[in-house]
Amino acid sequence: MVRMSPGGREESIPRFMAYPRFRAGAEVEITSPIHRLRGTLFPGRIVARSRRKPNAFLVEYKTLIAPSDAGRPARPYREEVPVGLLRPNPPAETGRRFHLGDVVDAFLNGGWWEGAITKELKSSRYMVYFRCVKQQYRFEAAELRLHREWINGNWVPPLEAEEEDGDVDDDDEEVTSAMEEKSSELCQTAKGAFAKGALVEVRSDEDGLQGAWFAGTIINKAARNQFFIEYQTLRAEDKSSEYLREQVAASHMRPYPPETFVVGPYERKARVDAWYNEGWWEGIVERALARMQYRVYFEGTGDRMEFHLSELRPHRDWVNGKWVMPSPVS
Question: How far is CA 286 from the centre of its chain?
């Protein structure tokens, strides 16, 4: 499948939706598709995108070993998994104390199993009850974590904001902070939205890149309202194996939007983001074409290009700490 670039050249396009969180090498947790293990989360990593199945990935488990013949060395188990069974690896938490009734994940037999604290023991030990097997077992605190769900790109319950090294003003600990840009635009961010390890999108103001958002991960806090980020798709140099890192102002960042699966067609003049050149570009649908293709106009550059449905997502704006769907162009 090809599309025409603004210069009239043919360019190949990917077949399926891009998932910046699940690039090759990314640490993930995998929900087992096996019925008796359903709900168990196994640690693993992304090997590659599936060449046979849409919206699926080849994963390698960290704790599961593939069957092997006698005399052959053991190797990690690999399989293709639909994206709906994947989630990012949650940031590690240390020093947490658990209490009676807490819903937790306990590490057992190579995976994380959901259970509930039924008794607090001495020496940071706990009894955990598992409803799936109607049994309870004893665990060290280091083998437990608070249970969280990954919903629309956010952890529920949310991760607590981590304290950064260095001097931090008391104002940075407020639940929200306000930053006034030269354009007098007010940007509000919820506490923890820009925590270390959070996936975000960064807006570019460079010539030719207006209206483009690039996915990145927060490495650390740099200064007041400044963060060091590592991009998920942009390389430090051409053909480099390292991803670009740079310091970014909070006013140029937003949380990564919730993933949306669109089945029906886009209406004419609908506002969309199109996946192109490793980023999401804000555009307007001009026309629906055959074979689920769309012609999109980009106000920032004045270009028009054709995209497959799988390369588009509904456009959202991050306004006062909430995602807002804009009205179609009149």
Answer: 29
Owner of token pair 């001495």: 122
Using the structure block, give the residue that is written with the tokens 């390389």: 235
Q: What is the DSSP string of 154-218?
A: EEESPPPPPPPSS---GGGGSSEEEEE-TT--EEEEETTTT-TT-EEEEE--STT-TTEEEEEEE
Please tell me the number of Cα atoms within 13 Å of 113 on its side-chain side. 20
Question: What are the C-alpha distances in Å from 202 to residues 216, 220, 245, 299, 319?
Answer: 7, 15, 12, 19, 15
- Residue 169's pLDDT band, with cuts at 50, 70 and 90, is very low
The DSSP string of 146-162 is E--EEETTEEESPPPPP
For the chain, give the percent of residues with pLDDT over 90. Answer: 24
Q: Angle CA(302)–CA(213)–CA(169) in degrees, nearest 5?
A: 135
Cα 296 to Cα 224: distance, rounded to the nearest angstrom: 38
Give the residue from 217, 202, 212, 213 showing the smallest Cα distance to 88.
217
Q: Which tokens in the block code for residue 187?
A: 């940007």
Give the pLDDT band (50/70/90) at residue 161.
Answer: very low
d(CA 63, CA 204): 40
Residue 38 has pLDDT above 70, yes or no: no
| 231-247 residue pLDDT tens | 888 887 766 677 888 88
